[in-house]
């Protein structure tokens, strides 16, 4: 009886069937996104130089990087994009990683390190969860909250919250 209960708990915790289930999400880059405004009386942390100029007419990529593998084989491109209305999204393009339990997209201030040295660094410093990973394959967008100053962060991780490990990450290079 104990073995059955243990096996049931293990299956729930690890969710091994997800390794054979892919979820593809293909989202277009939006023109605008809805984000939560900062509370009344709290100024935005957006730097004045990052406000859209009158000549800016569409999305502008501010930083980008290629995903490297950590705990699981991961590839694709990450872009930080300012939309025409001044809001920002983190865009994953051509993402290909394993499915897993409780995967999140994190914007972090941690350096991206190759191999096992990079598996656990992203929860050591400052990070913002942009939400659950929508799919383990495809292109998708994650809105940055309006009170987040993106220039304080330099990497994005596909983070497994259940096991506190990075599936893959990208260093964001300013353009």
Molecular structure report:
Helices cover 7% and strands 36% of the residues. With 175 residues, it is mainly β. It has a domain at 58-175: Immunoglobulin-like (Sandwich), CATH 2.60.40. It starts with a helix and ends with a strand.
Keywords:
1 helix, 36% strand, Immunoglobulin-like, 175 residues, mainly beta, 6-stranded mixed sheet
> Major sheet: size, sense and barrel closure?
6 strands, mixed
- N-to-C SSE string, H for helix and E for strand: HEEEEEEEEEEE
CATH level 4 superfamily of the domain at 58-175 = Superoxide dismutase, copper/zinc binding domain
Assembly status: single chain
CATH architect. name of the domain at 58-175: Sandwich
> And the CATH topology of the domain at 58-175?
Immunoglobulin-like
So what's the overall shape?
A: globular
CATH class of the domain at 58-175: Mainly Beta
Return Rg in Å: 18 Å
State mean pLDDT (0 to 100 scale): 84
| Order of the strands making up the biggest sheet | 1-8-5-4-2-11
Number of helices, counting only DSSP H or I runs of 4 residues or more: 1
Derived structural class:
mainly beta
């Amino acid at each position: 009886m104990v073995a059955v209960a243990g096996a049931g708990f293990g299956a729930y915790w690890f969710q091994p069937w997800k390794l054979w289930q892919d979820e593809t999400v293909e989202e277009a880059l939006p023109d605008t996104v809805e984000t939560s405004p900062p509370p009344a009386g709290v100024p935005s942390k957006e730097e004045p130089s990052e406000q859209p100029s009158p000549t800016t007419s569409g999305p502008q990529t501010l930083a980008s990087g290629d995903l490297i593998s950590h705990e699981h084989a991961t590839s694709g491109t990450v872009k930080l994009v300012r939309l025409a209305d001044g809001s920002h999204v983190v865009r994953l393009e051509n993402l290909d990683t394993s499915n897993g339990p409780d995967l999140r997209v994190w914007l972090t201030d941690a350096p991206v390190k190759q191999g096992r040295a990079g598996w656990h660094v992203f929860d050591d410093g400052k990070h913002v969860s942009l939400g659950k990973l929508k799919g383990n394959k495809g292109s998708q967008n994650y809105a940055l909250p309006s009170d987040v100053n993106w220039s304080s962060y330099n990497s994005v991780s596909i983070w497994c919250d259940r096991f506190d490990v990075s599936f893959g990450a990208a260093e964001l290079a300013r353009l």
